[in-house]
């Protein structure tokens, strides 16, 4: 059986999730050193897992497995939301930066939800190569 999406990097949800990961990695460089193995690590892990799980789901052989992984990516996105709120409340992110990051989080969430709707409703075995 062919992969559901030919190449993960063509997937719009992955592209925006990857952009979010890069943003998180850059932002956390300014966090206090004592947060390196605490909040910084949690933010980087939850953000990168979103994109990584989308890649893994794309490599699976069935729609059912793919949907399962997309749900996992959505759960990691929710975890990231909490870590960002915590970082803001601890004073590591100002309101403006927090809002910018949350706008990207919201975009990724909408794209993941759209991907889920598409995968659940599609009757096609082979999905198009275009951005979803």
Key phrases:
132 residues; mainly alpha; de novo design (two linked rop proteins); disordered C terminus
What's this entry about, in short?
By secondary structure, this protein is an all-alpha fold. It has four helices and no strands. Helix 1 (12-28) packs antiparallel against helix 4, helix 2 runs antiparallel to helix 3 (63-89) and helix 3 runs antiparallel to helix 4 (95-121).
Topology:
Elements lengths: L11 H17 L10 H21 L3 H27 L5 H27 L11
CATH topology: de novo design (two linked rop proteins)
Low-confidence stretches: 127-131
| Sheet having the most strands | none
Strand content: under 5%
First-last Cα distance: 20 Å
Number of domains as seen in the coordinates: 1
Protein structure class: mainly alpha
Give the name of the CATH superfamily.
23S rRNA-intervening sequence
Q: Helix fraction?
A: 55-70%
User: How many H/I helical runs?
Assistant: 4
Global morphology: elongated
Mean pLDDT: 89
What is the total tally of β strands? 0
CATH class division: Mainly Alpha
* Strand and helix order: HHHH
Report the C-alpha radius of gyration, rounded.
16 Å
What's the CATH architecture?
Up-down Bundle
Description:
The longest helix has 27 residues, at 63-89. Mean pLDDT is 89; it is low at 127-131. The chain is built from four helices and no strands. The protein has helices at 12-28, 39-59, 63-89, 95-121. Helix 1 runs antiparallel to helix 2 and helix 1 packs antiparallel against helix 4 (95-121). The protein is mainly α. The chain has a single domain, classed as de novo design (two linked rop proteins), CATH 1.20.1440.60.
């Amino acid at each position: 059986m062919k992969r559901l999406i030919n190449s993960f990097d063509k997937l719009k949800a992955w592209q925006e999730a990857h952009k979010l990961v890069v943003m998180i990695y850059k932002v956390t460089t300014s966090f206090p050193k004592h947060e390196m193995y605490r909040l910084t690590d949690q933010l980087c892990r939850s953000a990168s897992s979103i994109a990584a799980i989308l890649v893994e789901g794309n490599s699976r052989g069935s729609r059912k497995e793919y949907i399962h992984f997309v749900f996992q990516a959505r759960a990691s996105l929710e975890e990231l939301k909490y870590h960002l709120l915590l970082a803001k409340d601890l004073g590591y992110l100002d309101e403006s930066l927090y809002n910018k990051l949350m706008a990207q989080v919201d975009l990724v969430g909408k794209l993941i939800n759209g991907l889920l709707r598409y995968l659940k409703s599609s009757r096609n075995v082979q999905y198009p190569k275009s951005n979803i």
